[in-house]
Design a protein that fits this description.
There is one protein chain. About 40% of the residues lie in helices and about 25% in strands. It has ten helices and nine strands. Strands 1, 2, 3, 4, 5, 6, 7, 8 and 9 form a nine-stranded antiparallel β-sheet that branches.
Length: about 290
């Protein structure tokens, strides 16, 4: 797997002055495009699209300083349709516009070429179970919010606060199946997993497929399938974030399963004192071919 990922990174470098096809990267890594994007994001700490943008702007920065091409030529060479768009992107990364950088020989930011190497991890085991579930329903309140890759999602926090205790208790009373009680359900509608892409967030419970939902609540029908269920206890929310990371960087590469598109379910029980929590994460999976 490691060799395949590094071969994919070689492909990136060879195509930075053209089109980098994520489907081809996934083919080189012998996985699905969806899983490759998730795995890359977990390993690199940034979405694939952000890495490509930063690598191109790194190369563009060197060409700007060299002064051998016009700024418009540099912009077009690195995929920008106008000098204005290039200048905005250049300033966002380097903190200075390309014209000023060329005139003053400014200090620029460099995104190093990425490669993956073996670090001995996994000395501690991960506890999981795979559950086959018939179709079920997610019932609760839904909001369309932007994806936030790190830290608290302000839109989700504001949405939950706005529900009020009475509404949350009404939803909680409908819980019928695992994971029991209120669950946080997220479903992203983009393979890219970039900061700001839309996702559906449900503050909800799990019920049977035939359970009628009270008026005013949102329903997500979930088809039958397999789910990998992971649990951990630790400082909140750091332990939860590390659990998600370990699932995609350690568990998936080590087990014959792939992520399948669908809602991800999270049940969190904050322990007394509020500093630690028990978390249970349900990830939709399919066995690898």
């Amino acid at each position: 797997m490691l060799d395949r990922l590094n071969q994919a990174m070689e492909y990136v470098e060879e195509h930075l002055d053209g089109t980098v096809d994520p489907a081809e990267l996934a083919r080189i890594a012998v996985t699905s495009e969806y899983h490759f994007r998730r795995l890359f994001s977990a390993l690199a700490g940034m979405p694939l699209s952000e890495y490509l943008r930063r690598r191109r702007l790194t190369l563009a920065g060197a060409e700007v300083l060299a002064g051998e091409r016009t700024l418009l030529d540099v912009a077009v060479r690195h995929g920008y349709g106008s000098g204005e768009a290039f200048a905005r992107a250049f300033r966002a990364m380097h903190g200075v516009g390309p014209g000023e950088a060329r005139r003053s020989g400014a200090v620029l930011v460099s995104q190093p070429r990425m490669s993956f190497r073996l670090v001995v991890e996994g000395s501690s085991s991960m506890k999981y179970r795979v559950v086959e579930r018939p179709e079920f329903r997610i019932v609760g309140r839904r909001a369309r919010v932007p994806l936030v890759c790190e830290g608290v999602n302000p839109a989700i926090a504001a949405f939950v606060r706005g529900l009020g205790r009475e509404e949350i208790d009404r939803i909680a009373a409908l819980s019928e199946q695992e994971p029991t009680g209120i669950v946080a359900v997220t479903e992203v509608f983009s393979d890219h997993r970039e900061e700001g892409v839309p996702l559906d967030y449900y503050h909800a419970v799990v019920t049977g497929a035939g359970t009628e939902a009270p008026e005013g609540l949102d329903v997500r029908e979930v088809p039958a399938g397999s789910w990998a269920v992971f649990a951990n206890t630790g400082p909140y929310p750091r332990a939860l974030q590390e659990l998600w990371r370990d699932v995609f960087t350690q568990w998936f590469p080590s087990n014959p399963y792939e992520f399948r598109p669908g809602p991800e379910l999270l049940r969190v029980n904050v322990l007394p004192g509020g500093e630690e929590a028990e978390a249970e994460l349900w990830i939709p999976v399919v066995r690898s071919a």
